[in-house]
DNA sequence: CGCGGATCGTTACACTGTAACAGGCAGGGT
DNA sequence: ACCCTGCCTGTTACAGTGTAACGATCCGCG
């Protein structure tokens, strides 16, 4: 299908220079430390799932991941991927993009309390993860005022990323 | 305000504690004015769909709506409901809760630019919609700083609503 | 060795959403 | 009156997303 839009010149915040191997290695290292510390199992399937998600520059569906993990003789079922993704999201290594039913690598080593803001570009399909203390604060204030005790937060903004603005339509994925 | 407060019983469809007939009538009236003004058709299916969503005190899936709209001799297919929901969401009469694949009535007559914050209670399943200028502002600031041009915003907070806190577990819906 | 716990493979199934085509109904122009 | 057009709805079929349940395997532990 669509080879993720060659957004050409990456002016925006895709990480230092594309989500590639560098970030992947970082994430895997983080996962290994985490598993070590907490006595969890960072199995081959979980590692490979994390790698696949980390090396893609856009959100991947569970079935896409399953496909990428499958080899001619060795099919990986989606349900296995879901289980691996459960593990990875529980420990903050990947995030689920609710508005897309898809998953992206975590680009921050954020602390448990912090919550991310996802900027999803409609043109090139990239997702950027940012953290803003200011947004946290105003959210906290609003929640406290409403007497609501938050457990998890989802903030997803769809629009056009900096790189795609004013350049016709960049990589052009069909909007979903 | 609206105490979904009598969660004491079984966390389902309380009639009038904020989500009941009163809101329904308001919403329908708003829809009729809107259709009048813009030359749109507020058909029976669309009205009934809106009513069903408005009278439920929690997010409803499209198939649930279809079921409620169906009568022994007259089945309403989910696809028709989806089309009605498209209309209703496009014009701000209902909102989609992305994290639940479900729909709630719009509790504000918000202006087009404003975006809502949804507070979703894990215990009783109720959804409260609030608007905070402060959150808007901090979001806008963060987006501007990232050079990102927003088109739509999703802010959904899961947690425990005020009414459910400290009362054991309120109405207790099985978590989804 | 036997037991318990966690992981993973496999199947089956439920839920969510869309594409495509056909019929009905209203309004507009001739 | 007619046809034409656009919109809405019904229907079928299907794609995509997610979970339940059962069994097999592996591993650490008493």
UniProtKB/TrEMBL annotation, chains A, B:
It comes from the Bacteria. Zn(2+) binds at residues 121, 124, 161, 164. SUPFAM superfamilies: Winged helix' DNA-binding domain. The keyword Metal-binding applies. One of its GO terms (molecular function) is DNA-binding transcription factor activity. GO terms for cellular component: cytosol. Fe cation binds at residue 136. Pfam families: FUR. Its cofactor is Mn(2+); Fe(2+); Zn(2+). This is Zinc uptake regulation protein. It comes from Methylobacterium frigidaeris. The lineage of its organism: Bacteria, Pseudomonadati, Pseudomonadota, Alphaproteobacteria, Hyphomicrobiales. The gene is zur_1.
